[in-house]
Amino acid sequence: MTTEPAASTIEPLSAQQGAALYRLMTWLSPAFPVGAFSYSSGIEWAVEAGDVTDATSLRDWLAAMLEHGAGFCDGVFLAHAYRAAAADDQQALRSVAELAVAFVPSAERHLETTAQGRAFIEIVRNAWASDGFERAVAACDGAVAYPVAVGLVSAVHGVPLPATLHAFLHAVVSNWISAGARLVPLGQTDSQRVLAALEPVVISTGERALAATLDDLGSATFRADLASLRHETQYTRLFRS
Prior knowledge:
mainly alpha, 12 helices, globular, 0% strand, single chain
């Protein structure tokens, strides 16, 4: 006697959902060549100064950056850029792009976000062209910060905003942990423990950023801002920021 397998109750992804997931995983993968590996967002100086010495102090430093610093602010910029691009509101997109570039606290952070934004735009232009892409980029009318680039590209390609935002924050924190692992140094297991511990912080930060207005922007991570300023004159450096 043979038994027929039970019909699956799991609905497969639609072609549109599959394409959105495929693109999001590609664009925010460590292998996507925006040069993120060469930046530490001031973590290199924090290790030099003794603020970050092990997995626990790295976790605490990054949690603060996510909740009260660059993580939250970049999330807000991404969400507003996405909505402006999706609505084809060129004036709003230009305003968000200008504010995002002006908001960074140091020359090195400015280089970090604009260089990655420029690389992201160029790679998508050459490999993932789509209707509305050039119009959205032109609306920015100047340098494009990395979160703005990710937001407008995802909007043009129809990738859902919540998924884009959470994937972006995951990619950012993963790069921060990678930098910390090389600098402290940490092993692979400790690095994954830090990433696991920051999961609820990434989720809550993403939820806050989705609901935030531009008036909610603000940073209280003064030590991290000082780290990005002092890194420029650090005697030995592995990273560009």
